[in-house]
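Intended use. Records like the one below are meant for learning the mapping from a protein sequence to its folded structure. Do not use them to infer anything beyond what is encoded.
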Amino acid sequence: MRLFLILISQIVFIASSGAYAQAAINGQFQVPAELWDRPRTGQLVLAVPAIRQALNALLAAPEAKLTVHHPPGPESASQAEELRAWLVAHAVEPARVV
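Structure written out for the chain above:
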């Protein structure tokens, strides 16, 4: 079970089985399933390369939004919400994370 962070501009978004986005500033970042195997802290969350890269890209592009894609089910939905809360705790405006 993996979460995908998709950095998108407000112009173009394409969702497919691989959850891709298209535009000049876009990127796809895959969160490893191992993140959820242990208690998390802000330091641990930011140590995940995909999350750090997505956060840096998002903060560098004020017009961009980050979309968290997750598999169906309550567990992965909870993980996506937790990840959103961690991003907000690290200076991301809540409206920029979907």
